[in-house]
Write a structure and sequence with these properties.
Layout lengths: L11 H9 L15 H7 L21 E2 L12 E2 L18 E3 L2 E3 L3 E2 L5 E3 L24 E7 L2 E2 L6 E8 L7 H14 L8 E12 L8 E10 L4 E12 L12 E5 L5 E3 L7 H4 L6 E2 L4 E2 L1 E5 L8 H11 L17 H5 L5 E3 L9 E7 L3 E7 L5 E7 L5 H13 L4 H10 L12 E6 L3 E3 L5 E3 L5 E8 L3 E11 L6 E12 L2 E11 L3 E6 L2 E2 L13 E5 L2 E6 L2 E6 L3 E8 L2 E8 L7 E2 L27 H9 L25 H6 L5 H4 L6 H10 L2 H21 L11 E5 L4 E4 L7 E5 L6 E3 L4 E4 L11 E5 L4 E5 L2 E5 L7 E8 L5 E6 L5 E2 L5 E2 L13 E2 L3 E2 L7 E2 L4 E2 L22 E5 L5 E5 L19 E2 L6 E9 L5 H13 L6 E10 L11 E9 L7 H18 L23 E5 L3 H4 L3 E2 L7 E5 L3 E5 L12 E5 L2 E5 ...
Parallel strand pairs: 1-16, 37-44, 44-46
Antiparallel strand pairs: 2-9, 3-4, 5-6, 6-7, 7-13, 8-10, 9-10, 10-11, 11-12, 12-17, 13-14, 15-16, 18-19, 19-20, 20-21, 22-23, 22-35, 23-24, 25-26, 25-36, 26-27, 27-28, 28-29, 29-30, 31-32, 32-33, 33-34, 34-35, 38-41, 39-42, 40-41, 42-43, 45-46, 47-48, 49-50, 51-52, 53-54, 55-60, 56-58, 56-59, ...
Subcellular location: Membrane
Main location: membrane
Protein name: Mucin 4, cell surface associated
């Protein structure tokens, strides 16, 4: 037996009997009502002003407070205030745009109601006085940043707004910008952030609506800053300057945070706090910075390069007009023409895509030019470059300004610095040839044979910027009375280059030894360009080898190509048009007059029809006496060498008729065959001669021209006709790509009927079957989708994707707004006051009962001066409770408590409340297989699926992360069915049946949604694509989290001891043990800061005790009363029994008789 030992008594059996009548209790261990600390915890806190444990916001711990950046007229700010209930600022247009969510926004404005709004168009300007009742959700109709979104009122002459815009695109310095940068770097731990655009807006002494009835004002500041790729918002609240009284707010409560309008959003942490804390953001402690009165938001969803900014910075670094010879360069008009112009070399840039090819040419004094060609060899476009062989770096600004951003005006500015290169002024080089046993074609096209022996001047040319010299060395061809070239040397000089000398020396087996400035050249075959050539690049010259052909392009100006065949060097020289009328040597006088080509050094000339002997004499006058570019010869030349002439060979050619039959009358082939008695050499001579003639023809052959409009403008749904013509009679016109809205006839008639804004690039091809060449034209295509054609601004455009399509801007009238002026202004565009209905065409109905206003602005009428001299005691309310003076309670202080608290002073908890998101949980992801027959675009499918999933009963859809067209064989019916694979993402949230819906009902709901599609039309992309019905096999899970996993992402913020409880209908709920029978035996549960506490109570003869009142003890007075009562009863019972027994014994003695006595009497 537990408890105090009992003394033995004589009546052991009686003691045992009495104890058997009692329950098992612990005498002497009773626990009275909780005292000391327990009593202190269970009793209500005092109502006087004394320090108590409060939340972080009211903690007595000292933290630095964030100060507003300098503002006002003294800080250079502009003031904007209108004495009206609502007003907005002018539009701000960051030159490089402002990253918000996944978009780059063009314009923004602020309102008197504590918002900075990013409108879809310049005409969609509203003030939106009433905050969203649900907070930001990602499906918000307006993209905005809200430092303190609530209905403000500046109409009474109180308060003002200051603002200043800082553009620091090029590294300018400003103190407020430096301060903002410092805060952003500290919070993000990113020291590389450099602001390129910043907006500072300061709301000073802003009063709540209606200003004449409300007390207190707010002073706060918003800083928006971006480096072009990243953007941030700083909300700064003046310490003690946020004084609006929540007790006077009748509508939706204040909203802070942001929404990008494309699914990216964040609500202020204060949105999950009690309402009075929402209105005191100056007390909020930012854990990242350790500052009070500061909120910080990252506004960009992901970091992306800003090509507008890159372009603008590049434009700033360039002179307005190019200082180099930009106007002297041009491109070959076809790939075929350019390949034979040795000034141009094929390169692989990759800038224009897989279907394009590029040729580039450089000069040291004029810069360079690169030209792009299409699959038919058609010229597309050309661009200037300044530094050779740095194509990607040089052309990258073109991509920034013209390809990778949607602002055509930037491309126009780029072209001002780098004017486009065309082919209209292209003039091909003039070729000359030296081949076989030397046969020479002069620059004016005169053919002759010269079999001189020695070193000869082939050509000397000079203009004001450069000079070019080409020499050749001949040797006797075997034992024949003929010669051939065994070496060439060329030297080039320019105003910016010293002499560059290249030598080609014949080696055995048709090899060529190349020397550059007397140094052997080794070609880099590992760095091959698109033509498969080994190259060697040096200052002033580009050498390339392709088999036995070695070419040299001197400063992109003059070029020489040498080939070795049959142990003979054959060469061609190409000179630019600038050398015309400035040449001399064996290649003649280039002046387009063949009559004076055979001009000798002394100035005398022999006619082209002169005898071979005279031509031989002419050629020998250009022999180099002394040491030339090829140095001294190693062999001894005969002094009286005379070659055999063609006329001599013809007289004795009867023996070689079979040999020369393959020459087909080619005189150079016949000469070489007869002179060398070698048909193979003659065949090579003929082949080279034929090639040179084809080269000459190609160089001087131009593709058909395209004449017509370079800009095509059209209005949606209307057909525009443009006629294109060509200078070639046999030219036929086709479209380079299949553009569904265009139709081009072979005669050049173009019809355009715009039906959509799907990006495309219009390319018109004109091809000549006769010469096999094509030309291309890519006109600017500008479409207007405004509601009325009169609203079109064709000179204010934006590019649709990476294409030639530009979308005209719209100038809306006073009755319309939207990107295309497609929406009519209506009084219901701005939401009315909560619970007030809006009648289209009329506006908001009357304010709710007991409120006054216009239906959009409503407030409780009354006098705010009744309790103006009353104030709440310090720390009157506990645990973030908000104290206000209640007019209805006689100006007494009253607490409004968070939902967890049960008493009037916010000290005792116990109610249930919703948890907060501790870590953002992973997304719920599903995959859909869809089919449609409307030839929809990817954007239209995305918008349509997003709309359907956004209308599910449970609004948890976030976005489609992937939308891909699936290639599949055409159906037998031939109908244009398109198949799509869509990855859709949904957000888990702890409250309500969201989790149960996403995990258990989502797939079935999606199937049903696609069975009952209710389409509508969107401003952006068509979202009324009708999909074929789907089955359960067409939708399946990608990612789903069970309840136990999700539990780790939510927490119960507040008092200790709350349990996170899940139910399918309510989701996760923070439940106090007090509401779940925490205390036993009728104990009273109170939820204190340290957790639930039980106050045990007495009942009947027992007293409960223990942490949860789980034990019972009998009261001492009740125990002894029952014990002694039982004992007294037993004693009385014993006495009674004793008396009865004694009486019984006495009675039996008095009346008893012996039987034998009767028998014994007489």
């Amino acid at each position: 037996m537990k408890g105090t030992l009992w003394r033995r008594v004589p009546w052991v059996s009686l003691s045992c009997l009495s104890l058997c009548l009692l329950p098992h209790v612990v005498p002497g261990m009773t626990t009275p009502s909780v005292k000391t600390d327990s009593a202190r915890a269970s009793s209500p806190p005092p109502t006087t002003s004394q320090t108590a444990a409060t939340s972080t916001t009211l903690s007595t711990a000292t933290h630095s407070r964030a100060s507003l950046l300098p503002h006002g007229a003294g800080a250079g700010d502009l003031e904007l205030v209108r004495r009206a209930v609502d007003f907005t600022s002018p539009l701000f247009r960051p030159a490089a745009g402002f990253p918000l969510g996944s978009s780059l926004r063009d314009a923004l404005y602020f309102t008197d109601n504590g918002q900075i709004i990013f409108p879809e168009s310049d005409y969609q300007i509203f003030s939106y006085p009433n905050p969203l009742p649900t907070g930001f959700t990602g499906w918000d109709p307006v993209a905005l940043v809200a430092p303190f979104w609530d209905d403000a009122d500046f109409s009474t002459g109180q308060g003002t707004i200051f603002y200043q815009e800082y553009e620091t695109l090029y590294g300018e310095h400003s103190l407020p910008v430096l301060q903002a940068e410092s805060l952003i770097r500290k919070i993000t731990n990113n020291g590389g952030f450099k602001a390129r655009w910043t907006l500072k807006v300061t709301w000073v002494n802003a009063h709540a609506y209606p200003a004449q009835w409300t007390l207190g004002s707010n002073t706060y500041q918003a800083i928006l800053s971006t480096d072009g790729s990243r953007s941030y918002a700083l909300f700064l609240y003046q310490s003690g300057g946020m004084q609006w009284d929540v007790a006077q707010r009748s509508g939706n409560l204040v909203l802070m945070g942001f929404s990008s309008g494309d699914g990216y959003f964040e609500n202020s942490p204060l949105m999950s706090q009690p309402v009075w804390e929402k209105y005191r953001p100056d007390r909020f402690l930012n854990s990242s910075s350790g500052l009070r009165g500061l909120q910080f938001y990252r506004l960009h969803r992901e970091e992306r390069p800003n090509y507008r900014l890159k372009c603008l910075q590049w434009l700033k670094s360039q002179p307005r007009w190019p200082s180099w010879g930009w106007n002297q360069a041009s491109c070959p008009c076809s790939w075929q023409q350019g390949r034979w112009d040795l000034r141009f070399q094929p390169v692989s840039i990759g800038l224009w895509g897989l279907s394009s090819r590029q040729l580039c040419s450089f000069t040291s004094w004029r810069g360079g030019v690169c030209c792009s060609y299409g699959p038919w060899g058609e010229f597309r476009e050309g661009w200037h470059v300044q530094r050779p062989w740095q194509f990607a770096q040089e052309l990258e600004p073109q991509s920034w300004c013209c390809l990778w951003n949607d602002k055509p005006y930037l491309c126009a500015l780029y072209q001002q610095r780098r004017p486009r290169v065309g082919c209209a002024t292209y003039r091909p080089t003039r070729p000359a040839w030296m081949f076989g046993d030397p046969h020479i074609t002069t620059l004016d096209g005169v053919n002759y044979t010269f079999n001189g022996l020695g070193d000869f001047l082939l050509v000397r040319a000079q203009d004001r910027n450069s000079s070019f010299l080409l020499q050749g060395r001949t040797a006797q061809t075997g034992s024949a009375q003929a010669t051939n070239f065994i070496a060439f040397a060329a030297q080039y000089r320019s105003s910016s280059l010293g002499p560059v000398t290249v030598q080609w020396l014949l080696e055995p087996h048709d090899g060529i030894h190349v020397l550059l400035d007397n140094q052997t050249v080794t070609f880099e075959t590992g760095h091959e360009d698109g033509g498969g050539q080994g190259t060697f690049n040096a200052t002033g010259v580009l050498l390339s080898r392709n088999g036995s052909v070695v070419s040299a392009s001197f400063d992109g100006w003059a070029a020489v190509s040498v080939i070795a065949l049959s142990n003979i060097l054959h060469a061609s020289a190409s000179l630019p048009p600038e050398y015309q009328n400035r040449t001399e040597g064996l290649l003649g006088v280039w002046n387009n007059n063949p009559e004076d080509d055979f001009r000798m050094p002394n100035g005398s000339t022999i006619p082209p029809g002169s005898s071979e002997e005279m031509l031989f004499h002419y050629g020998m006058t250009w022999q180099i006496n002394g040491t030339g570019l090829l140095g001294k010869r190693n062999d001894q030349l005969p002094s009286n060498f005379t070659p055999v002439f063609y006329s001599q060979l013809q007289k004795n050619s009867s023996w070689a008729e079979d040999l020369i039959s393959n020459c087909h009358g080619d005189s150079s082939c016949i000469y070489d065959t007869l002179a060398l008695r070698n048909a193979s050499i003659g065949f090579h001579t003929r082949a080279i001669s034929k090639t040179y003639k084809q080269v000459n023809a190609t160089l001087n052959q131009y593709p058909p021209s395209i004449n017509g409009g370079r800009v095509v403008e059209a209005y949606k749904g209307q057909t525009t006709l443009i006629q294109y013509t060509s200078n070639a009679e046999d030219a036929t016109f086709t479209l380079g790509d299949n553009c569904t809205d265009f139709k081009l006839f072979e005669n050049g008639t173009l019809l355009w009927t715009p039906k959509s804004l799907e990006p495309f690039t219009l390319e018109i091809l004109a091809r000549s079957a006769k010469i096999g060449l094509a030309s291309a034209l890519q006109p600017r295509t500008v479409v207007c989708h405004c509601s009325a054609e009169s609203q079109c601004l064709y000179n204010h455009t934006s590019r649709a994707g990476n294409s030639s399509l530009e979308v005209a801007g719209c100038k809306c009238d006073g009755r319309t707004f939207g990107r295309y002026c497609e929406r009519s202004k209506d009084a219901c565009e701005e939401p009315c006051f909560p619970s007030v209905r809006c009648i289209p065409g009329k506006g908001c109905e009357a304010c709710p009962p007991h409120l006054t206003g216009d239906g959009r602005h409503c407030a409780a009428p009354g006098s705010s001066f009744l309790c103006r001299n009353q104030s709440c005691p310090v720390n009157y309310c506990y645990n973030q409770g908000h104290c206000y003076i209640s007019q209805t309670l006689g100006c007494q202080p009253t607490c409004t408590c968070p939902p967890a608290f049960t008493d009037s002073l916010c000290f005792l908890a116990g109610n249930n409340f919703s948890p907060t998101v501790h870590l953002e949980p992973p997304l719920r992801v599903i995959q859909l297989l869809l089919s449609e027959e409307e030839n929809a675009s990817m954007a239209e499918v995305n918008a349509s699926v997003a709309y359907i999933l956004g209308t599910l009963d449970m609004r948890a859809f976030l976005r489609n992360s992937q939308v891909n067209r699936i290639n599949s064989p055409a159906p037998a019916s031939g109908s244009p069915i398109q198949h799509w694979m869509v990855i859709s993402e949904f957000q888990y949230r702890p409250w309500g049946p969201v989790i149960n819906f996403l995990n258990n009902q989502l797939l079935a709901a999606v199937v049903e949604a696609f069975l009952h599609q209710v389409p509508r039309r969107s401003e952006e992309s068509r979202n009324h694509v009708v999909f074929q019905p789907i089955s359960r096999e067409d939708v399946w899970d990608v990612t789903a989290l069970n309840v136990s996993t999700l539990k780790a992402y939510f927490k119960c913020s507040g008092y200790k001891g709350y349990d996170l409880v899940y139910s399918p209908q309510s989701g996760f709920t923070c439940v106090s043990p007090c509401s779940r029978g925490y205390c036993d035996h009728g104990g009273q549960c109170q939820h204190l800061p340290s957790g639930p506490r039980c106050s045990c109570v007495s009942f009947s003869i027992y007293t409960a005790w223990g942490e949860r009142c789980e034990h019972l003890s009998m009261k001492l007075d009740a125990f002894f009363g029952i014990f002694f009562g039982s004992l007294g009863g037993l004693l009385l019972l014993g006495v009674g029994m004793f008396v009865v027994l004694r009486f019984w014994d006495c009675s039996r003695t008095r009346f008893s008789y012996f039987l034998h006595s009767a028998e014994a009497s007489p």
